[in-house]
Amino acid sequence: MRAPDFSLLQLRLRLALARVGPLAVCVAALLLLGAAGSAWTWRQRAVVARLEARPPVAAPPVLAAVPAPAGANLNLALFYANLGQRRYAEQEVGRLFALAAKAGLSLQQGEYKFVYDKASRVHAYQVTLPVKGAYKAIWQFALEVLRAAPFAALDEISFKRELIAESAPEARLRLTFYLGDAAPAVAP
Question: What is the Cα–Cα distance from 136 to 149, expressed in whole angstroms?
Fold first, then answer.
């Protein structure tokens, strides 16, 4: 069997086009494009009809109206109401040592510093504690402190292990207790 000779086919196509004329070729091309466009349009209409025939999706439930944000005075009163009391600062340090003992950690001598911010009338009691114990126990201790004293912030925690062979890392925690003298009288 012989392979088709493309030069022969090309010659026959040129002769046929010369007999028909360029106008007929353009008309035939336009008819083919129109048929393809019609087929594509019918296909798109069929897709749209299928989508419209689907059952409607249930609307999402209407959420309850969110109350308007509280006024600035009420927010300020809530802020001061949630501060710890300055007169109990030493008890908070005692609570730190009790929570550390409960977690099986040993606390070393810490650094303690009082700071007062005149603009906000808030005392900040900064406590830096070196801690030694298991990594997980240190994190649990830090989280337990924050649960027990919601007016505390964990400012920094860093871990250090001098030797790979050491079983327990050393950590340094810096906590700040935000304290007030008494809740100031702010009208909501």
Answer: 20
